[in-house]
Specification:
By secondary structure, this protein is an alpha+beta fold. It contains twelve helices and 19 strands. A hairpin with a 2-residue loop joins strand 15 and strand 16. The longest helix is centred in the N-terminal third of the chain and has 24 residues, at about 55-80.
């Protein structure tokens, strides 16, 4: 039997998919049956292995199709919204951001700002008239945050101020910054505490707690610049805003930068559409590539057939297929198509039986039942069809595990017999 010596080793060296194809052919007479046989116990699986263990190969293929199909579904949902094609943007006079739809004049009377507290100057290297633990609180929007500082007899005004600044700056989530400044001319040091958030509602106060006097000693509650809202007018109508980013309608926003009158040009916003379109093309190609890689010609052919049905109209708006079958975007043509409305029409945004709707249906079906597509290869009868082994009643892909276990052990059987 020297001619067949090592057959088991050769069997184990071929790919798992080829092993499974071979095993499947051995059972082609009555289909690959696992339920009710002595080798495949519903509770124990092949050779007593628990059925919760699954086929790594099949799990990989089914998982990859499901993940990419889910990603494509999300990309379609994001692109298939009329609202992103209607959004606007505004830029300073002379800017450019797509198709111009008009201009708007904004008269800014007051900018939004955050509160700044400026402490009193104290002789920097003078010893403090207090020691031990000192507590104070910063209160903003009804929320009080406590701080405690431990002082020693060696602390000066400047070292104590630095301890306060360090305690505040370490609490980054609170939204305050503190800085100690030293005046060379006077020899004094002072502490500045600034809020992060603009708007009148974000004012704050600093008070001593638990009988302390540190905040009062350094004048921490002295407001140098109060928190205030932006005040501006558009077409004679006055508005306020807690921030300097103000909405002028249609999703367009401008940033107020100075107290003055400025004209902004309003454009159709193509950036949101561009981002959504690029993501869609990427996810479409990813799912097609995954389907091709895992022998799922049925899914790949379905996606390609949907594209071919609309290819003429899509090519006119800058979406085309390269020689490798991958979708691509002509950015300049796509931007013009977004501006003149032809992109929305070619994609069939919000329309039943349009391009995006059909792609969405295919992606959702693959996402919900990936095993239906895994391992399919068109009319190739020799291709191993994982969906025939996928049975929810056996807990996921238990029968796939059984098939793989038989394949992995067939090599040992051959070696034993030979």
């Amino acid at each position: 039997m020297a001619g067949v010596n090592g057959l088991g080793s050769q069997f184990k060296q071929i790919s798992q998919l080829s092993q499974l194809n071979y095993i499947s052919s051995l059972f082609s007479g009555g289909g690959f049956q696992t339920q009710g046989t002595s080798m495949f116990q519903a509770d124990l699986g092949l050779y007593g292995v628990n059925r919760s263990s699954t086929s790594a190969l099949a799990k990989l293929q089914i998982s990859a199709i499901k993940q990419d199909a889910g990603n494509l579904s999300g990309a379609v949902a994001n692109l298939n919204k009329p609202s992103i094609f209607d959004s606007l943007s505004a830029v300073g006079f002379g800017g450019s951001a797509g198709k111009k739809t008009g201009s708007i004049g904004i008269d800014t009377m007051q900018l939004a700002s955050a509160q700044v507290n400026q402490g009193v100057g104290a002789t920097a290297y003078e010893r403090l008239p207090m020691s031990g633990r000192q507590s104070f609180a910063i209160e903003q929007n009804g929320k009080k945050t406590m701080f405690s500082i431990d002082l020693t007899a060696a602390d000066t005004n400047r070292t104590a101020q630095q301890k306060i600044a360090d305690a505040i700056n370490q609490n980054k989530g609170l939204g305050f910054t503190a800085k100690v400044a030293y005046n060379d001319e006077t020899g004094n040091s002072s502490l500045t505490i600034s809020g992060r958030d603009t708007g009148e509602e974000n004012g704050f106060s600093i008070t001593d707690q638990n009988g302390g006097s540190l905040a009062a000693h350094f004048g921490l509650n002295n407001v140098a610049s109060a928190a205030q809202d932006a005040v501006f007018s558009v077409d004679g109508e006055t508005y306020t805003s807690a921030t300097n980013e103000v909405d002028i309608g249609g999703g367009a926003a401008v940033k107020l930068i100075e107290v003055d009158t400025e004209t902004y040009e309003v454009y159709q916003n193509s950036s949101d559409v561009s981002d959504a379109l690029n993501d869609f093309v990427k996810q479409f190609n990813d799912l097609t590539n995954t389907a091709d890689a895992y022998g799922s010609e049925k899914l790949a052919d379905r996606l390609n057939a949907i594209y071919r049905e609309f290819s003429t109209d899509l090519a006119k708006v800058g979406i085309y297929s390269g020689v490798d079958g991958q979708l691509r975007i002509n950015e300049q043509l796509a931007e013009r198509s977004v501006a003149d409305g032809s992109m929305e029409k070619a994609l069939g945004v919000g329309k039943k039986e349009g391009f995006l709707d059909l792609v969405s249906n295919a992606a959702e079906e693959a996402d919900k039942n990936p095993a239906k597509f895994a391992g399919q290869s068109g009319g190739n009868s020799n291709a191993f069809n994982y969906s025939s082994l996928y049975d929810a009643s056996f807990g996921g892909d238990y029968k796939l595990y059984a098939a793989e276990m038989m394949a992995s052990n067939m090599g040992m059987l051959f070696d034993y017999l030979m």
